[in-house]
What does this fold into?
Amino acid sequence: MKNPSAPIRQKSDHHAGAAAASSAGSAAPSSEASSMDPLFHVLRVLPFSFLRPPKTRLKIPSVTLPSSMTVFALVLLTYFAVVSGLVYDVIVEPPGIGSVQDPVTRAVKPVVFLPGRVNGQYIIEGLSSGFMFVLGGVGIIFMDLAMDKSKALNVRTALAGFGIGGLVLAYCMAMLFIRIKIPGYLW
It folds into this structure.
């Protein structure tokens, strides 16, 4: 409830009070130099009143950007390292290859794939799988290069053949690796 004895404010009184407050705020010094510490000012100005920087003839080294093929090679190498499980190999330190004993002859046979464990691998298993993934990617790149109309027909045919061959080989080998790793997968 409003107090009946309180004075009624006019709209113009409110605007006049805001204008007075803003003019009082702008009267404050806005220069940073006047608010600077005098000791800091002396330390900043005094040494340079009698010291001069030497005139040197140093050249700024120019850094050239790497070529596009260098960047591509680094990206492809990084992709190979990631899909090969290099981080897993460094952290877990699995053996290069495994071994299994033949139950009949008791002979120890080397095993490249760690069967039955999807989240584990031997080092050679990871490297061979990563190589197949990179081979498939390079096959796609070759097929893209084969679409260039400015190349000769025999070059385009060779690029398309290598691209399709690499892609088919990578797919077949990756599926074989999965079937060795997980017996009965997709049968």
Observations:
- The chain has a mean pLDDT of 84.
- The two ends are 82 Å apart (CA to CA).
- Residues 84 and 128 are 8 Å apart (CA to CA).
